[in-house]
Amino acid sequence: MSGDRIKVEVDADLEDLIPTYLSNLDKNLEKITAAVSSGDFEQCRVLGHNMKGSGGGYGFHDLSRFGKQIEDAAKESDAGEIQKTLGQIQDYLTRIDITYV
User: Fold this and answer.
1) What pLDDT shows up at residue 23?
2) How would DSSP label each residue in the chain?
3) Number of domains comprising the chain
4) pLDDT bracket for residue 3 (50, 70, 90)
5) Residue in 19, 3, 1, 2 with CA at minimum distance from that of residue 100
6) Containing domain of residue 25, as a range?
7) Beta-bridge partner residues of 6
8) How many angstroms separate the CA atoms of 22 and 42, rounded?
9) Is residue 41 part of a domain?
């Protein structure tokens, strides 16, 4: 992946919620990592589904896409794809610049 910054525009009304959202996202990524390691694909599916549903609502449309990738991979019990997507999410999170509009 390139090191280019990713600009994300978030509704200014959500500014107070974003730190908690991102903190909860980190916790859920840890849960997905643990679940995929233990073969709990149902947990991965549920957490991916939740990410798919919440990301766009906060302005993080890429997180919704990543959540769908995790959900779909979990349905196929594809640990490798889930781990690949987790890496993509970590890369994404290190490169986002949030602007409140």
Assistant:
1) 96
2) -----EEEEE-GGGTTTHHHHHHHHHHHHHHHHHHHHHT-HHHHHHHHHHHHHHHGGGT-HHHHHHHHHHHHHHHTT-HHHHHHHHHHHHHHHHHEEEEE-
3) 1
4) confident
5) 19
6) 6-100
7) 96
8) 22
9) yes
Residue 101 to residue 91: CA distance in whole angstroms: 24
Q: Which residues pair with 97 in a beta bridge?
A: 7
Enter the tokens of residue 8.
Answer: 């994300």
Instruction: State the virtual CA torsion across 70, 72, 74, 80 in degrees, nearest 10.
Output: -70
- In CATH, what number is assigned to the domain containing residue 51? 1.20.120.160
pLDDT band at 49; cut points 50, 70, 90: very high
Could you tell me the pTM of the whole model?
0.93
Q: Quick check: is 1 in a domain?
A: no
Q: Which residues of 83-95 are buried (b: 16+ CB within 10 A; e: fewer)?
A: bebbeebeebbee
Structure tokens at 17: 């919620």
